[in-house]
Design brief:
Layout: E1 6-9, E2 12-15, E3 17-18, E4 22-29, E5 52-54, E6 81-87, E7 94-100, H1 115-121, E8 124-128, H2 133-136, H3 149-164, E9 170-180, H4 182-192, E10 202-206, E11 232-233, H5 234-247, H6 257-264, H7 269-272, E12 283-284, H8 293-296, E13 307-312, H9 317-323, H10 335-344, H11 348-354, H12 363-388, E14 393-398, H13 422-425, H14 436-455, E15 475-478, E16 481-484, H15 487-490, H16 493-499
Parallel strand pairs: 2-5, 7-8, 7-9, 9-10, 10-13, 11-12, 13-14, 14-15
Antiparallel strand pairs: 1-2, 3-4, 4-6, 6-8, 15-16
Helix pairs in contact: 1-14, 9-12, 10-11
Length: 500
């Protein structure tokens, strides 16, 4: 017997869609729409509905501008919905995996088919939508909880899981919070946020960026200056918000802050999105996130749950390709020493000696390797080792050299770039196809992930052993080989430790 495709929730009934091997329930509200006077406020309880709500199509994505790397645009603030994917067998007590999407903090979508992940490991997958950019991380004098609205949305989704997931056969006492890129950054915030305690029991961070330390100029995106850790002091955010609002003419400088907020809540969302890039760093210093994760995590001040984290082998190829090559401004032999000097100052010659462009097919690939090692591999290692001091931690490197790129990059050797692993975990409409070998590999990777979700350890009897990070082990994941990687040597971590 199959589970029902109609489920009664606290807010009303929903009807999902039966697909090949799983059921999909989409666009389920987990909080009231954050519109009008509810803009920049904590999420409110769901507004109940009558009758059976259609849950066969996704809800609107959070408001976001169009990007070259994301084919999603939206101006609909009624975005606090989630999707639930359930294997099509009548079992209770399944592990639950809550997935937070990436997108840099301004963009992203939860609209992915999680059937592959759900059925491979017999788990319930929940993918929430949450506020982004200026609607998530805006701050202003007089605004309570500024800079934390996206984080609070995710907490509301986790509370919804605790209340409702048994109705889908899930176990609310066995919840894994997972995320990729910006989603992984938010997982790091939840490890520290007081109100997130007890809402999840394991954590997965895929390609977390700048959690603990600053990032040198150009090493995230060519042309972007040095970046601090991805956390903003609340008072600094308030000043930025007031200055931005005045600069755009949304408020008068120096006026009453409460009158200014009333005006800001009436600004069309499309206009607000012009400022989204300035508001992607969650704020700390208030009750939602009292302390910066950059300080709290190394000190052991976080919720002690098992952690699985890692990165892709060629992370930065994505950013060099999208933000340099594809816009007609590739990294050239003349650019390379300038980028090194602006990123590393007096150490530029040392970096050049270890990454001579003559060893790479193009200067862009040389720069991508520098950026991958310094901005991704070294911070991942730092974060993993910090967490492993206090809790069980496993580390991986996704290393399929032929992974299909997340966006079309014709003629560029993309490798295992940023976000490449998502095609192995989810089916995306119109997304890149996998070969037969890659589909088999995807099943093995997903068995590791779902074993971790079930037991807090990725060990699986049918897969190669995966020792914890305390032993120094990093698991390389590729179609032709799964096993230990010489991560420190491959990414010159001793060198970067000395320069950092």
């Amino acid at each position: 017997m199959s589970p029902p495709d109609t489920v009664r929730l606290g807010g009303g009934e929903v009807r999902g869609l039966r697909l090949d091997g799983h059921l999909s329930f989409r666009g389920i509200p987990y909080a009231a729409p954050p519109v009008g006077e509810r803009r920049w406020r904590a999420p409110a309880p769901v507004v109940p509905w009558s009758g059976v709500r259609d849950a066969t199509t996704p809800g609107p994505d959070a408001p976001q501008p169009t990007r070259s790397f994301a084919h999603v645009t939206s101006t609909d603030e009624d975005c606090l919905t989630l999707d639930v994917t359930v294997p099509d067998t009548p079992t209770t007590g399944r592990p639950v995996l809550v997935w937070l999407h990436g997108g840099g903090g301004t963009n992203g979508t939860a609209t992915r088919d999680a059937g592959r992940l759900a059925t491979t490991g017999d788990v319930v997958v929940v993918t929430p939508r949450f506020r982004l950019g200026v609607l998530a991380c805006f701050g202003h004098p007089g605004l309570a909880d500024g800079g934390t609205f996206g984080l609070q949305d995710q907490q509301a989704a986790l509370r919804w899981v605790r209340r409702e997931i048994t109705r889908f056969g899930g176990d609310p006492a066995n919840v894994t919070l997972a995320g990729e890129s910006y989603g992984a950054l938010m997982v790091a915030a939840h490890l520290v946020a007081p109100a997130s305690a007890g809402l999840f029991h394991r954590a997965i961070l895929q390609s977390a960026f700048a959690v603990l330390a600053p990032t040198p100029a150009h090493t995230l995106i060519p042309g972007v200056p040095a970046l601090p850790p991805r956390w903003t002091p609340a008072d600094e955010l308030d000043r930025l918000g007031a200055a931005t609002a005045a600069e755009h003419g949304w408020t008068a400088p120096g006026g009453d802050p409460h009158a200014a907020l009333a005006r800001l809540r009436r600004v069309p969302v499309a206009d607000l999105l012009q400022a989204s890039d300035a508001f992607i760093r969650p704020a700390f210093g208030g009750h939602v996130l009292p302390e910066s994760p950059a300080s709290a995590l190394p000190a052991g001040r976080f919720h002690r749950v098992p952690v699985l984290l890692g990165a892709t082998r060629d992370e930065a190829r994505f950013f060099v390709a999208v933000f340099a090559d594809l816009v007609g401004n590739p990294v050239t032999a003349r650019d390379y020493p300038r980028l090194l000097a602006e990123a590393f100052g007096d150490a530029a010659d040392e970096v050049a000696a270890r990454y001579p462009p003559a060893r790479f097919a193009t200067p862009g690939l040389a720069w991508a390797r520098v950026c991958t090692d310094r901005a991704w591999a070294w911070p991942t290692w730092q974060l993993g080792r910090a967490l492993a001091e206090h809790t069980d931690t496993w580390c991986y490197e996704f290393a399929d050299p032929d992974a299909p790129p997340p966006v079309p990059l014709p003629g560029l050797p993309t490798g295992a770039q940023h976000a490449a692993e998502l095609a192995y975990q989810f089916d995306v409409p119109g997304g890149p196809p996998l070969s037969a070998a890659q589909r088999g590999f995807a099943e093995r990777v997903n068995r590791y992930w779902t074993a971790f979700a079930a037991h807090g350890d990725p060990a699986h009897p049918d897969l190669p052993d995966w020792p914890g990070l305390r032993t120094g082990h990093v698991q390389s994941l590729a179609p032709d080989r799964i096993g230990g990687a010489d991560y420190a040597a491959d990414h010159r971590l001793d060198f970067w430790a000395r320069l950092s």
